[in-house]
């Protein structure tokens, strides 16, 4: 069983009380009585956090903190302090402790801190995993995020079909990232050195289809929204695929759809032969509602991207906020989650909140977010921020006063 919290305290009664409190909060704990007993469990891959007393005989909490930092500087250590130990705890924070709590510590104070530290730890370990995958040069691991079984199965399926020299049908709900999956298949295929040409099905009459196939020669042609392909072009595409299969040349076809093309073919609204040819090697992208455990990884990634684009520091994602995200169905899937991340970085309301605001209130939120972004990019230099927004200094300061913004709060960020 994975351990959430490693308890280190020389007082057996305190250890037992802490372990019971954590068990009631559905957190798994391992209780140890000294640094010597605890150190064998401290490792770079340790998935939990450390909760340690400061004052212990022999090697105390400061020694444990220094040892942990040497093993993994991003492993959270929370220190428990007795009365009069506050100055020591403040010193420990300067040495890298995640936080400190004064004993006796009520569960209502202890558990939220531990859960916040655990959320931080999980994000650190996931970022390391993603970085390791990035270094392997595996596009499926680098571009298709998620730790769920469904995400793992999707990556495995993409890797398998990429190696085959056959057409592929990628399906999924709106906003699921069909185009990205098609690109990953191309990047992992023998045709990766050739062009990756993207076209929308509705725009491909027969001449445009011929042009697209020629442009994708030696590489891949991705037709998005295949169901919108005109009827004449469906027949032309089928003929071209059969001819090129016999000749062993041409562009590899990857088609994308959010529609049920099988039902469309049965109803006579789509060329059945073309559908059954493409459906030999299907790739289905699961909806976010089927893998809510992937939402924290995806949202954290999108928040980091949005913060970089906006030139802002990435705001802290609290466990409560993440829980609310995971409770939603996300019919727009990754696309809507990406939009939510951008609004989160800019301090704008989520959709449910935005619907309750009038136009003036929504515009005020947007204006405030732009002021915050300008101050953050200029590190609190008000005159430079005003210039960047092309505002007179007086107007700029009037707006800061209206929203309660102070330039000094953004210095040194």
Query: What structural class is derived from the secondary structure elements?
Result: alpha/beta
Task: List segments where confidence is low: pLDDT < 50 over at least 5 consecutive residues.
Answer: 352-357
Rg over alpha carbons: 28 Å
Q: Helices and strands, in N-to-C order?
A: EHEHEHEHEHHHEHEHEHEHHEHHHHHHH
How many helical stretches?
19
**Strand content bin:** 5-15%
Strand order of the largest sheet: 2-1-3-4-5
The main pleated sheet reads as: 5 strands, parallel
Helix content: 40-55%
Task: Tell me the span between the first and last alpha carbons.
Answer: 40 Å
Kindly describe this structure:
By secondary structure, the protein is α/β, with parallel strands linked by helices. 52% of the residues lie in helices and 11% in strands. It is built from 19 helices and 10 strands. It has helices at residues 12-24, 35-38, 61-71, 86-94, 107-136, 139-143, 149-162, 178-187, 206-215, 231-247, 261-266, 272-278, 295-310, 319-327, 333-346, 351-354, 359-377, 382-388, 393-403, and strands at residues 5-8, 29-32, 49-53, 77-81, 99-102, 168-171, 196-200, 220-224, 252-257, 282-284. A 5-stranded parallel β-sheet has the order 2-1-3-4-5, with helices on both faces. Strands 7-8-9-6-10 form a 5-stranded parallel β-sheet, with helices on both faces.
């Amino acid at each position: 069983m994975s351990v959430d919290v490693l308890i280190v305290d020389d007082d057996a009664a305190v250890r037992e009380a802490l372990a019971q409190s954590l068990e009631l909060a559905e957190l798994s704990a391992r209780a140890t009585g000294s640094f010597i007993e605890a150190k064998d469990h401290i490792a770079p891959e340790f998935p939990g956090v450390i909760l340690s007393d400061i004052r212990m005989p022999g090697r105390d909490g400061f020694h444990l903190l220094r040892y942990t930092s040497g093993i993994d500087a991003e492993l959270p250590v929370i220190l428990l302090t007795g009365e009069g130990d506050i100055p020591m705890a403040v010193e420990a924070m300067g040495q890298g402790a995640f936080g400190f709590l004064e004993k006796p510590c009520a569960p209502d104070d202890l558990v939220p801190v531990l859960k916040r530290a655990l959320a931080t730890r999980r994000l650190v370990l996931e970022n390391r995993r993603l970085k390791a995958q990035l270094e392997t040069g595996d596009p499926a691991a680098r571009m298709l995020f998620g730790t769920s079984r469904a995400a793992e199965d999707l990556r495995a399926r993409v890797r398998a079909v990429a190696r085959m020299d056959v057409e592929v049908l990628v399906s999924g709900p709106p906003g699921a990232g069909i185009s990205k999956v098609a690109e990953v298949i191309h990047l992992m295929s023998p045709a990766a050195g050739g062009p990756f040409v993207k076209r929308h099905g509705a725009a491909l009459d027969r001449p445009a289809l011929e042009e697209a196939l020629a442009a994708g020669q030696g590489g891949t042609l991705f037709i998005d929204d295949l169901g919108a392909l005109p009827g004449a072009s469906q027949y032309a595409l089928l003929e071209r695929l059969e001819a090129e299969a016999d000749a062993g040349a041409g562009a590899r076809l990857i088609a994308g759809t959010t529609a049920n093309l099988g039902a469309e073919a049965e109803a006579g609204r789509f060329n059945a032969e073309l559908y059954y040819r493409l459906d030999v090697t299907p790739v289905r992208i699961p909806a976010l509602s089927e893998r809510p455990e992937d939402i924290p990884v995806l949202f954290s990634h999108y928040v980091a991207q949005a913060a970089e684009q906006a030139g802002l520091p990435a705001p802290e994602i609290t466990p409560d906020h993440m829980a609310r995200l995971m409770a939603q169905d996300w019919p727009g899937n990754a696309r809507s989650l990406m939009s939510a991340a951008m609004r989160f970085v800019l301090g704008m309301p989520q959709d449910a909140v935005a619907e309750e605001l009038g136009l003036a209130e929504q515009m005020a939120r947007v204006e405030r977010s732009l002021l915050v972004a300008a101050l953050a990019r200029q590190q609190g230099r008000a005159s430079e921020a005003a210039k960047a927004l092309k505002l007179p200094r007086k107007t700029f300061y009037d707006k800061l006063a209206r929203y309660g913004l102070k330039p000094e709060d953004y210095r040194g960020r």
